[in-house]
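Posting for a labmate who doesn't have an account.
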Amino acid sequence: MVKYAIGDFFADGFFSPSATEGGNVGMIIVMEKNASEDQIRHVSERLQEEGFQVHLSKGVKKTIIGAIGERTPAVMESFEVLPGVEKIVPIIQPFKLASREFQEKSTSIKVGEAVVGNGSLQIIAGPCAVEGREKFLEAAHLVKEAGATMLRGGAFKPRTSPYSFQGLAKQGLEILAEARELTGLPIVTEIMDTRMVELVAEYADILQVGARNMQNFFLLKELGKIDKPVLLKRGPSATIEEWIMAAEYIMSSGNKKVIMCERGIRTFEKYTRNTLDLSAVPLIKQLTHLPVIVDPSHGTGKWKLVEPMALAAVAAGCDGLMVEVHQNPSEALSDGPQSLIPDNFKRLVLKINKISSVLKNDY
């Protein structure tokens, strides 16, 4: 088993540079190949009696029981001798539920007719913001015709300047819902405030946590209480570990439907809006069982770089892309410089499909 030297976080939600806390809060119990249902149930019940959260994962050959709680040598020894137990493996990482150690099988998440994380490639496209009904419905039809499998658009827009366009709020959500009705595409839109979770969940198929809110722990906990997929964007200065720990907040609150989204990080480079970290794609897949998509639009901030970075993301093994598309980027109320026009998006989808088919045939 590979052990990773990574830090930890405190229970109140603040990250610590030390690696001294949280190392004894999880373990995996691997059951023997021929373990009976009664033996598995007995181990699960004993874990619950000891105060552990129990997560059962049944594979073709073996059953793995994930346990989140206070792990002491005495507790581990008491479970090692139970009938049907093959071995006990401590979870080293501070992230437990998201860990590949905790769940070997990759998570796939069904969204309408689409599935994220099952080997297919999902393409989420649309304008940065819902700017008006007719314009957005037109964009929705255009991206669907070009090959998009999901539709994006912001009803609530977090902006650096308080004087910039902030979105159409509930009216924007209603337009998104109408676009879904007309196109059949699931919709992805951003959630910014704990007070809006219920409202946005009523309309959206996937709730997006923007980069600025990646460590809004109160919001993450509230999203853990709903039964809707959450697309978690990486913060502009977040490490891989901090990003995964943000996902852990959602999962530990009850919602296991988390989709990771790499959207670029802030570096000293000035030629691009952000530095798109494509190494995050294979890293997330090695460290966690969660699906990961890439946003080359925010990752570069320049429309001419979106296509090459999107193709590279597919080659890196992402489960999907999020691309901003606008009929007239020069008139866009937000993120025009990074938006593709529909014709360029259509060309991109054709290239994406070619690369995706080559990679599938290669395995």
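Reply:
Got it, the structure tokens are right above this. Residues 1-22 have pLDDT under 50 and may be disordered.
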